[in-house]
Amino acid sequence: PVDRTAEIQEARLKLPILGEEQVIMEAIKENPVVVLCGETGSGKTTQVPQFLYEAGYGSDHDIIAVTEPRRVAAVAMSQRVALEMNLSNRVVSYQIRYEGNVSDETKIKFMTDGVLLKEIQKDFLLQKYKVIIIDEAHERSVYTDILIGLLSRIVPLRQKKRKPLKLVIMSATLRIEDFTENRRLFPVPPPVIKVDSRQFPVTVHFNKRTPLDDYAGECYRKVCKIHRMLPPGGILVFLTGQAEVHSLCRRLRKSFPYSGKSVTKEEEDDSQEAMRKFKKSKHKKPVNLPKIDLDNYSAMPLDEGDEDREAGEGEEDGEGSDLELGDEASDADEKPDYSLPLFVLPLYSLLAPEQQAKVFCPPPSGTRLCVVATNVAETSLTIPGMKYVIDCGKVKKRFYDKVTGVSSFRVDWISQASANQRAGRAGRTEPGHCYRLYSSAVFGDFEQFSLPEITRRPVEDLVLQMKDLNIEKVVNFPFPTPPSADALIAAEELLISLGALQEPPKVGRLKDLQKAKLSSPITALGKTMASFPVSPRYAKMLALGKQHGCLPYVITIVAAMTVRELFEELDRPAASDEEKERIKGKKARVLQMQRIWAGQGPAQKLGDLMVMLGAVGACEYSGLTPKFCDNNGLRYKAMMEIRRLRGQLTTTANSLCSDIQIFLDSKMSPPTESQVTYLRQIVMSGLGDHIARRIGQEEMLDEKWRHAYKTPLLEDPVFIHPSSVLFRELPEFVVYQEIMETSKMYMKGVSSIEPE
Ligand code: ADP
Ligand code: MG
Hints:
Layout: H1 6-13, H2 21-30, E1 33-38, H3 44-54, E2 63-68, H4 71-85, E3 92-95, E4 108-112, H5 113-122, E5 129-134, H6 142-159, E6 166-171, H7 177-180, E7 192-195, E8 202-206, H8 215-229, E9 234-238, H9 242-255, H10 265-282, H11 304-310, H12 314-317, H13 330-334, E10 342-347, H14 353-357, E11 368-373, H15 376-379, E12 386-391, E13 394-400, E14 407-413, H16 416-424, E15 432-436, H17 440-445, H18 460-468, H19 485-497, H20 510-517, H21 524-530, H22 536-544, H23 551-563, H24 577-597, H25 607-621, H26 626-631, H27 636-656, H28 673-687, E16 691-694, E17 709-710, E18 719-720, E19 733-741, E20 745-752
Parallel strand pairs: 1-6, 1-7, 2-4, 2-5, 3-4, 5-6, 8-15, 9-11, 9-12, 10-11, 12-15, 18-20
Antiparallel strand pairs: 13-14, 16-17, 16-19, 19-20
Bound molecules: adenosine-5'-diphosphate and magnesium ion.
């Protein structure tokens, strides 16, 4: 029996999913696999685990598992469900990559999908669990897809056992055919239960113009306008990354300061009075509130022009100059306005859980809540009281080069489905408004849905993980959406060349060869590699790193290469002459430091990798402070991530091999000359196919090959990136970490492979 508070009980009863409890529980009882669809906020994540618990699925030693693609959701949802059920977090717990609070009393366990995948490696039948809920399946994260594929096989295996396993797949958008119509995945299509949602109408306002770059500035102006002119209600802003989120938060807090003291009744009255006065003085004409369409939630405004004007957009162009809005008045915007406190909170994946939890609390009285979030607020978390959504239309995504497998983060347009999800966040508690900072024409060009992640990235790490689970014929794996055959073949070939998979037997015909290649079993080396949470190339380096005391160095280099972009971008446009000078000075200093870190003698051959090693070493030696990082042009956040990853890799290495016992050394001394030689070999063992040869004067047929390199993979010339310490030296042969295409194709993370 669950003892909920009256307040919680009342809130629950408002959720549409509560009326469906019986239908859902019956379907789960009768079927091994059930798909549950409902709009974000309908109560899937918080309520279904409770239904299952109350129906006895979490009794004795049985656990209800819930997987989330994001760490932030796993933590937040476990806390929310514990609170709703009035149970401690020893009973309703979470487990994510670096931490957790699971105990021997745990009955409901929220975890990331990656954590459950690791558990399958230890116990393929997942015998601890009686039910597995795959949440947010619509996000189509690679691990979610793989888990669903694996569970489609585990569930039938468990059916013959004493304790059958139930699988519940929960999804927000209604594009579930990949799960239900895929006969290879589920020969018997699972029943689909749709939960109606209590969605209030959301009026969508498009911008007339789409800002080219400064969508963050556009967000700022929009928040100011809404806060000054529109009735109470939370504002939710979607931006793309943590840095942007923080910068907008700072700017807004400066413009609408909230003192932090709890506002007394008197002060509240005062501030209301101030607000009245403010409104009177600024608004000579009554504010035109946007028309709310109560009957129709439409993503497209009927008449764009009208909606824009009603949203207060028109003022910017003409008579509204007294409103102190718009670009030209940005200085005035920055002037603090104490009469209108705005309670501004950031929200993104890496934010500490206590900080994240703040968005769920009501803001201090007399203030308006404004949450500036990344994509995490799109579907995983429902923030109460949001009435206005500002959607920049962008998302930060990883992109991969098909040829080289090289990845980079880029900001790109979202899909129409995402835009509609974002808009929907405004209509959870009352009718709302969504301001899209792009035109309806641009919206029309968005993809309808984003492609599942698995089709957009190389899959060598997944193939290795699967082989580690003894799935030899990866092509036959029941993917909800399979990766391309090319991607699978490329992955298998790379893993064979790294020694992680057995060489296929020599066969005559090419077709047979390809077939044989796609079913190579894993080797002992491959098993070791599979235990490291990094790309197989780097895992290979780690697996070989034990010799000659090189492991701490290899761990550091691998962590740095995995985190990427250690150095600040200093080629940015300066706002003033003064700043230009400052950046120039910093650049010179960073260059000097890089030369020092690059070492002397043979160490110099390690090039950029030696710089990474030196930078991490110096940073740790100085105690890893934001100041040290700033002085030396290093990104503090990257250095912190490297520290965490080094810790994790060190733990993994120690657990694999009890005789090495290495530890994280903050006073790591530079490698000796002979260690440098070994390090160069170890690097080659993972990046052996990433080699390039400089084109000499005599063979240069075209100007475009000046200072260029030729790689076996590409027809076109590639170059050493100007930020590399080897940029001036241009060694004849180099090995590189990755190629990034900007104005040219540039190699990054370059080492020389010339003989000493
Ligand atoms: P779904 O998984 O269907 O998107 P949830 O179960 O996450 O829906 O949320 C259901 C409702 O519970 C939301 O509409 C929200 O109002 C409320 N809710 C969820 N998490 C919290 C929280 N941490 N604090 C307060 N309310 C919450
Ligand atoms: Mg949910």
